[in-house]
Fold:
Amino acid sequence: MHDINNCRCMKQASVSCLKLINSKLTLILVAIASLLFITTMNISAEEYVPAKTIRFGEKQKVKGQWRATAYHLHEVGDYFFETSELPAKICFSEIQNPKTAACHEAKGVNDFPFQEVTDLKLVLLDKSRTKYGVLFTAQHHGATIGKTKYISIWVFKEESKGFANLLEKTAITDQGEFKIYSSLIGKSGYFILADRIWDSKTETLYAPHYYEISIFKLHESKYEFVSKYKTSKKYNSLDNTTRINVIDPEKQNIIKVLKQIGD
Structure:
């Protein structure tokens, strides 16, 4: 009987030990899971890094001192941007009150992402009204033939107390070009876009092309489309030059088009 009682005690002790071990294992696994979750959240929060920051205040006619910061993902290894679909973004914040930050992603039509910041600067939009805007551009990698660029111009809107893009969702190919004129004809500012017209049956991708010139006039709330035309001659593309130069040689034709339509 004594042996039987000892055996029962040993079994009960074994069960108790197993329960204790299982309980401790559960706590350890929960702790590991928590650490993994926290680590993942930290990586997610830190995956964007600032590419460039500018400060402005009076030139945007806003109270206080503000800054615009352009962010993209922290690049790791070759072809990093080609494997990511997260867009670059621009954030506006009041320097004395960082909690006022408002961010906008570099997305084109159908939320097409542009991953890499290429430019951020303050530009004069209209000389007659001394109107400035924040130019923010980003480049897409991966899903297109060649590389396409997102273009946006941001100004402060008093009615909404926030920053708004003066352009509709706008992008050009790597053979395209754009210029901002603070005065071109009359007193208004203009945004000019030039992009190649590719005849894939008779031209290689980076051969000389005809170009389409699109003209936009600055109004209070946005750039409004005015007119467009096809150039009368082809211009060198990236097979023949490292810098696209179409708008300057077409400037007189652009002015002619504006005068013809009475703009």
Q: What stands out?
A: Residues 46-173 form one domain. The chain has two domains: 46-173, 175-263.
